[in-house]
Specification:
It is found in: Cell membrane; Membrane. This is Sec-independent protein translocase protein TatB. Pfam families: TatA_B_E. One of its GO terms (cellular component) is TAT protein transport complex. The protein contains four helices and no strands. It has 155 residues and is mainly α. The protein has a domain of 84 residues. The protein is elongated, with a radius of gyration of 47 Å.
Length: 155
Amino acid sequence: MLDIGVTKLAIIGGIALVVIGPERLPGLARMIGTLMGRAQRYVADVKAEVSRSMDLDELKKMKETMEDAARDVGQSIKTGASEFEKQWSDATSDTPASSLAGDVAPSYPQYRHPGKKWRLKQGATPQWYKARAGIRTKALSGAARVARYRPHKFN
């Protein structure tokens, strides 16, 4: 790069002072400073863009490796599942798999509905006992309870 020391900067400054003049030198120095700032920002932006693209490439490589690993795991699961299904069918069949005829379908027990009324809440105490013992079987609201147990006025 450029090896610019303090002595070289002093010589360049002296020549610029003679050639440009003392009146226009501060404005020129300000303009050169702004141009240098813009150049530094541009270089920093280019460096950031290059680093982002490098990171993006690394992330793409990482994504590909993860997809390959996931694909391998999926294939191993499929092969394991097929082996498991084969072992399961061999274990659950009554006869060996080689002697089974292809036209015989396995029979399963038929579904029977339990016949329960699942919406009906049933307590442990039977209704006939509650009726005989005078146990309240239905809940009353506050207003209904007041109306029921309010003493009647006789005229």
